[in-house]
Amino acid sequence: MSNYNFETSEKLIKGCIKDLYINPKQDSIKWSKITNQTPQGKFAYPSQHMASLITGVRGLGSTARDDDLADGTEVKSCSRADQ
Question: Could you tell me the pTM of the whole model?
Answer without folding.
Answer: 0.64
